[in-house]
Write a structure and sequence with these properties.
19 strands; alpha+beta; binds zinc ion; single chain
Length: 285
């Protein structure tokens, strides 16, 4: 069975056909049963998953043509965006960090959200890329157990945690949240792929290319803290809400960790791909 893919076009919730060439509008396809607002749909994720099953029998004539350049962020107004630093062993080594005892958490502010194929406005000389697996919460709560954690997840996305290293490392100790929250620095998408029906969710191949050159390549089972661990830890401190976004950390190969360092330049195209989830394509300006 193919996992449901949920996205957003012109501010409206949509479901993508298996062919990845067409989509349906959620409100219209559900006969008005489900809303057009993506955030409200994520709260009703089990109904979205059921609606996606009926999409398989829709013929091509009933589909609108999918243009990836028109995709909006599939989670346009999350209440919280959490991000985990130093969550791959090789990345910890390249950044000269020790291994964390608990997830090392910072935030990316929602005003930095970008479209899956959006442009990145570079600031200064040290803007960097970070490919990440992103989880979207469907059912919130506090004190969620590791065993229950996946049942709180709507699905998974590809994420780019663009980072202004100059801002991040202005002081000692560094601060993360502002350096990762410039306009457009939070790219998510292209869709939310239903986690419950994604058999590969525990070990996905992730690749980041900058202007065609592979800069990061990993399997996500190399994470120090896995998605259920992160959800259990976060919810032991903060209440989680439907639509919350969790960036789960980047593997080795970021520009700041290379010799020589390789920061983003105007005209660079950053392509972030995760197996079964799709590709983000962001152009640096
Ligand atoms: Zn990151």
């Amino acid at each position: 069975m193919v996992a449901a893919r949920f996205g957003c076009v012109a501010g409206r919730a949509m479901l993508v056909a298996d062919s990845l060439t067409g989509y349906v509008d959620v409100e219209k396809f559900s006969g008005g049963k489900l809303p057009s607002d993506p955030m409200l749909c994520i709260e009703r994720w089990s109904e979205i998953r059921d609606l996606a099953k009926s999409l398989a029998s829709t013929n091509a004539a009933g589909l609108a043509t999918l243009d990836f350049n028109q995709l909006d962020c599939p989670v346009p107004r999350p209440r919280q965006i959490f991000a985990i630093g130093v969550n791959y062993k090789a990345h910890a080594a390249e950044m000269n960090h020790g291994l964390p005892k608990e997830p090392l958490v910072f935030t990316k502010f929602p005003s930095s959200l970008n479209r899956p194929h959006g442009q990145i406005k570079l600031v200064g000389e040290k803007c960097d890329y970070e490919a990440e697996l992103v989880a979207i919460i469907a059912k919130g709560g506090r004190n969620i157990s590791v065993a229950d954690a996946w049942s709180h997840v709507a699905g998974l996305c590809v994420g780019q945690d663009f980072s202004d290293r100059a801002l991040q490392y202005t002081n000692t100790p560094p601060q993360f949240s502002l350096g990762k929250s410039r306009a457009g620095f939070t790219a998510i998408g292209p869709f939310i792929t239903d986690a419950a029906t994604l058999t590969t969710r525990n070990n996905l191949e992730m690749t980041c290319r900058v202007s065609g050159e592979v800069m990061q390549h990993t399997q996500t089972d190399d994470m120090i803290f896995e998605i259920p661990d992160i959800i259990a830890y976060l919810s032991s401190i903060c209440e989680l809400f439907p639509g919350d976004v969790i960036y789960t950390g980047t593997p080795s190969g970021v520009g700041a960790g290379r010799t020589p360092q390789r920061f983003l330049c105007q005209g660079d195209i950053v392509e972030t791909t995760i197996q079964d989830l799709g590709t983000l394509r962001n152009t640096c300006i």
